[in-house]
Amino acid sequence: MVQPRRVSRVLQITTVQSPTFEGRTFGTGGVVGTYEKLIGRAYGEVDPNDPRNALIIDLVLAPRNASGKVEYAMDVYILKPVDMHLGNRKLFVEVNNRGNKLFGAFNGAPITNDPTTAADAGSAFLMNQGYALAWGGWDPTAAPGGSRLTIQVPVAHNADGSLITGPSYEYLVFDNATTVKAGITYPADSLDTTLARLTVRQHLTDTPTLLAPTDWQFVNAKTIQLLPAGTMFRQSAIYELSYTARDPVVAGLGFAATRDFVSFLRHATAERLRHPNPLAGSARQTVAFTVSQPARYVNDFVWLGFNEDEGGRRVFDGIENWIGAGDGVALNFRFAQPGRTERNRQNHLYPEATFPFAFATTDDHLTGKTDGRALRCRESETCPKLFDVISANEYWVKAGSLVHTDPAGHDLSGHGSQEEGVGEDGRRDAGGVRHYLLSGLEHTLAGAALFSSGICQQYGNTTNPNPALRALFVVLEEWVGQHRAPPPSQVPRVEDGNAVFSVPQADGLGVVPKKALGWPDIPGVTYTGVITARHLFDWGPQFDQGILTNYPPAFSGPVYPSFVSKVDSDGNEIAGVRLPPVAVPIATTSGWALRAPAFGGPDGCESSGQWIPFAATRAARLAAADPRPSLEERYSSHDDYVERVTRAARELEERRLLLPDDVQAYMTQRRRAAFAANLPRLLTTWRRNTRRRSHLGTRAGERREHHRSDDECSAEQLPRGRWHSRNRRNRHRSDWDYIHEDGGARGAELAMPALHNRYASTPPLTDIINSALPVYGLGTTKRSPLRSATSVRAAAPATMVPVVVAKALAPLGGSFRK
Fold this sequence. Notes:
single chain; alpha+beta; 18% helix; disordered N terminus; disordered C terminus
């Protein structure tokens, strides 16, 4: 990288779109005005002699410019009010995920790397408040293209200029039967396969089989293939490559790049020659938002002291971390692979999760070390206020409880019980940190697509975290700007009796005992209890210097105790923040899942959770031997169900865990969903064995009955929630029966005329169905909403019984897609 002007910080804007979002204005009455988009590159240099940079691995072995500094270059992307005086003078920084912007669902918008259209702003949670938004590259392994944000950092060399080589490791899994070549992160020092090792196994607990050197080859220094050429990698099998790599990059410069970019936006002036700061004077408060990988990055960012800039100032005032748990990102190592993430089947042998796990200062009984992620920033008085928000999945696949316990598994003293969060011993609980478990959620942006199982055995967990994330963001802002204390941490705790420890196994994994957890025997659902065990791995004597000489380590060693939340009799988690789909359930939701047999099952299904619906009726439940109460046993009517959901949402609002707008959205969507809930009864005759037909008139009171069976209903009465039958023996049947019964296309044919005529003055049928989709954050299995009744098969209305409602609607559009 060569720059003609060598200055400490340069921001070059190469593309400006003003206004962007097709000129849409934001804020109540448009008070924030329009936004503009700035795209460019930031060039920086760091001083290896500055103690703040000294922790960057291999920085002293990087090439330097004429002033003795090490250079980097990064992509940047800014969205800001055209008139910054109309904004709120606050900066929202999303730390990108492998170069991608993932804030869309949080902002009430589509997920895109280049938001441009009015629709791309969605409900504009952030823009309507007047935030400036910024992104900068930090991950040297992020793939270029697709408007992703990248960073260029130098390759390290030995002091004599020779190449650096060392052990590297690749965990390779392809959930398809078509892959014939596999890329690797760092170039191989030699293409001789006798100097490398490639193994394969079908399941994580199987003994790996060593492939002969003649069974595979290096196509080039960064690609391998099986032999003969064209041989496919086995679907979902685990391949592991150990080899000698060369040319490690100084990956830890990514931390400095984020620090310097945000500091520039906060403090640089508008008068800088040629390259002024576009936010000069308008970033008085800075809050970071992260999803998954960058949450782990921010954990390390704070731990390594990078929240203090080179002028000794705080970088981020507040941080909302979503689904990072207590892990790091393995960026600050030689031959770093920050794109990896450990879960209950994958990537266990990378240095992602090493002590310290918690922000509080704790003693590690296994290593004898004392440390905490907030230790350095406390010493420099630059700690941010931080919310660690995690799903149930992190407890199962990342030993997530360690973020709020000591390494021995003990609750941190005073954790979450005092407003300032300071422990009773004055040192254990980091005062600026809160922890919130969103109960029963999978590792997700906005919940799984409805009826999608992917490579797992069960449907994915549809619960949407964003209503809670938005509320917590506002609470964080109030904590930072107004010093208003947030709600206490809400996590499972040993002292509260709602924590269940995992039991380490000889195969390197752990198991959560079914009985201790309280998991019910659900028909058709397999429970193995598999969970990640947090080992103290032996990576060799130079580990503390960021160099892995024993790589990969053995899948063994001492284990740090970890636990998950107990569940209730439905299988839903007890501890944490229970959003309405968990508090007022129609299904069992879990943060764990198992792979389907064709994809390596029953190994863990990594980031996925489960959504396992309840039976409709008591009779159906008993027939299936399902111990969970049916819908008709839980709720006396649909109104009863809606009232309970509304009450649960309002209770969360009172605790500052839902915003009024999101509470209102729950209520509005459910009122519309109440109509959608009746659609199955409108579209079926409810009895497959009915031999006589019912002819429906066009208006109420004009119904013409011709040989109607006693077991048939009046479709015109159903929208008002009334069951009409001449046969008294049917009167005791609940609404749930008719919502759940399957009908044929003839039922739709009979019901549609009455439906059309009765509701001609209301929104079109497809609009009503679409309006029901957001309930619980559910959407279509396609990106676009429903266009016509024939596309109902591609989606499902999110009512209290979405599975069966969708099945009942299926006759309109052919077979329903699972």
